[in-house]
Amino acid sequence: MLNPPNQSIRRGKPTSAYIHIPFCRRRCYYCDFPISVVGHRAIGSNSGAIAEYVAVLCQEIKIAPILNKSLQTVFFGGGTPSLLSVAQLEKILDTLDGKIGIAEGAEISMEMDPGTFSIEQLQGYRKAGINRISLGVQAFQDELLSACGRSHDLNDIFAAVELIRQVGVPDLSLDLISGLPHQTMEDWQASLAAVLEIAPTHISCYDLVVESVTAFGRKYHPGENPLPADETTAQMYRLAREILTSAGYEHYEVSNYALPGHQCRHNRVYWENRPYYGFGMGAASYLEGCRFTRPRRKDEYYKWVEAFVQAGGVCEGEKISENDLLLETLMLGLRLADGLSLAGLRVEFGEKILAEIWQILQPYYCQGWVEFLGREGKVLGGVWGDNFLMDGRFRLSDPEGFLFSNRILADLFSRLEEG
Fold first, then answer.
1. 217, CA 20 to 30 Å: which among 34, 85, 167, 195?
2. Contact at 8 Å (CB) between 300 and 14?
3. Residue 347 burial by Cβ neighbours in a 10 Å radius (0-12, 13-18, 19+)
C-alpha cells in the first residue's frame, strides 16, 4: 500500500505508465539522462545486462501497488528502447497488461534511434502493440550529428524512416535540437525542410540545454561561441514556429507540434499535472499526491527493487504540498497552447490565488506575452482588471510568451512563494 496522501491534493487515478529503458550505445555529449552505455554490438538478444534489467523491471511492475486497472497510454523512454529484443518488449507489455491492464486503443509509444533496429524488429514491435514511434533525429547535418556524439548519420535517418513507413506505424514523431555548437540558421532551416519532406505526424523541437555534468557542459559555456547567441536561438524558435504552423502543424506545446489529432496523449498527462505510474531506473511516479523517484544508477536501482519487494510494495513518497502543486500546475500548464482553466484553478486553489496570479501577470499581459480566452476560445483584448476572475482560460502567447516563459514563471514562483 501507498502511504495515505494529503486528501486535498489527490488528483484522480493514473491511466498512464512510463517505462525507462536506460541502455545506449554511447552517451551523447548533451545527455544527462540516467543511462547505461553498452557499446555498439550489444542488443537485447545478446546482452546479459539488458536481459537482467528487463527481469528486474518486470519484478518491480509485478509488486507495485495499483490504483487503477486500465492504461490509456504507455511510453517507453530512455536511453534507447529500440535496443530491446521483440521478446523483451513483449515480456514488459505482458507484465503491464497482467498487472494493470492496457486498454484497447491505448497509445503505446517507443523512443528509437536511427540505426538501432531492423525491419524484423519493427514488425515484432508493431505486432506487440507499438503504435507510436519517437525517432531521435536531432539534426540533418552529419557534422552536427558527429559533434553531438550521436551514433547515427544522415543515411541512417532516411533508412530508419523508410523502415517505419514499410511497417505502417500510425504515428511517427521526429526530434530536432536547436542551439547546437556550430549550428547556423541555414542548418536549422535545412533541418526543418527535411522534416517537412518526411512529413511525420508529430515534431518535437528542443532548444539545447547545456548541463554542467555533460561533455558539452565541461567544454562549452552558454552564450559563448561556438554555441549560437541567445538572439540566434530565439530566431530559430520563431522560424520553426513559422515554418511548421504554415505547413499545417499545431504548435500545441512550447516544444511540440502535431498534425490535427496527433498530439502525444502521454506527454499531455505530464503537462496537465495528472497522475502516472513510472517504472525503471531513474523513473518517477506521481500517485495520490506523492512523487516516487527511483535511483538513477543501475546497481542502486536493483537494490531499491529488492528492498521494495521485501517491503511488499510499500514505498515512501514525497508528498506534494498545496503550494508546490499550484506552482507545478502553473509551470506545466503554461507550456500548453491551451493554457489553464480559470474555473479549474478557482475550484482547486481558491479565488484569492487567482487574484494574486492576475496581479503578477498584468505587466506581461500588457506586453502581449500573456493572453486570456473567453468561453468560446477567442482571445480577449482590452483592459481586464477584475474581469480576470471570469470563466475562460489564460495562456502564454505564441511565440513571444513561450520564448520568455522562464522569466514569467520565475516571477510567478518567487512572488507566490513569498505569499
1. 195
2. no
3. exposed
113 and 219 share one domain: yes
Per residue in 48-69, pLDDT tens? Answer: 999 999 999 999 999 999 888 8
In which band, very low, low, confident or very high, does the pLDDT at 385 lie, cut at 50, 70 and 90?
low
Q: What is the predicted pLDDT for the residue at 351?
A: 87
Answer whether residue 214 is part of any domain.
yes
Cβ neighbours for 67, distance < 8 A, ≥ 6 positions apart: 2, 13, 14, 275, 287, 288
Of 271, 289, 313, the position where a domain reaches its end is: 271
Task: Name the one residue in this structure whose C-alpha cell is 550505445.
Answer: 25
Q: How far apart are CA 28 and CA 24, in angstroms?
A: 9
Is residue 143 helix, strand or coil? helix
Residue-wise pLDDT tens digits, 96-143 = 999 999 999 999 999 999 999 999 999 999 999 999 999 999 999 999
Number of domains in the chain: 2
| Residue 1 in this model has a pLDDT that exceeds 50 | no
pLDDT beyond 60 at 387: no
Beta bridge partners of 229: none
| Total length of the chain | 419
Does 286 fall in a domain?
A: no
The answer to whether residue 300 sits within a structural domain is: no
Residue 380 belongs to domain spanning: 340-418
**Has residue 296 been placed in a domain?**
no
**Domain endpoint, select from 217, 249, 271:** 271
